[in-house]
Amino acid sequence: MSNVDFRLGKKPFYDNKRFRRGFAKSGDFTIAEEEILIRFGDTMNLLEGGELAPESEEERHFLQAVADEQQAESKLEKTWIKYIHLARDRKKFHTLNGKKAAATESVEDESDYDDSNADIGNDIVDDEPRSDD
């Protein structure tokens, strides 16, 4: 499938809410994908929203691909699906903390501590030489 049968947007498509600096500068899209979104994004957005009826077989296939991502064949369809996921899905959040289960295990380990020999380390050790002269 080529982009020939797919209508160009009536205006350039930008998403200033999610991609303020542009699609390619976000680091998520290539320059070619940015070009596809800018040129065809308005049409794809209107088709997906039901505000525009599909006129060609390629536009009908686009709607099927949006509904079932496994059917996406063209670069245009794959780019729009990628845009949908990046713009509308929740962002993944990764923490640097460990699991809480590990914290409870360490508490259990401390319960086995035997403090009967706790006085062993109370002697003061002076590493500096004495000057008794």
Mean pLDDT: 75
Determine the number of helices (DSSP H or I, runs of at least 4 residues): 4
Any idea what the radius of gyration is? 31 Å
User: Could you give a short account of the major beta sheet?
Assistant: none
User: What is the string of helix and strand elements?
Assistant: HHHH
Please state roughly what percent of the residues sit in beta strands, choosing from under 5%, 5-15%, 15-25%, 25-35%, 35-45% or over 45%: under 5%
The total of beta strands comes to 0
Helix content: 40-55%
Overall geometry comes to: elongated
* Helix/sheet category: mainly alpha
Protein name: Macrodomain Ori protein
InterPro entries: DUF413
Biased composition (Acidic residues): 106-117, 124-133
Region (Disordered): 96-133
Structural write-up:
- By secondary structure, the chain is an all-alpha fold.
- It is elongated.
- The model has no long low-confidence stretch (mean pLDDT 75).
- Helix 1 packs across helix 3.
- The chain contains four helices and no strands.
- It has a domain at 17-88.
- Helix content is 41%, strand content 0%.
- Residues 106-117, 124-133 have a biased composition (Acidic residues).
- InterPro entries: DUF413.
- Residues 96-133 are annotated as: Disordered.
- This is Macrodomain Ori protein.
- It holds the Pfam family DUF413.
Write a short abstract of this structure.
Pfam families: DUF413. This protein has four helices and no strands.
Strand and helix map with partners:
Layout lengths: L30 H19 L7 H11 L7 H14 L11 H11 L23
Helix pairs in contact: 1-3
What would the keywords be for this entry?
133 residues, mainly alpha, 0% strand
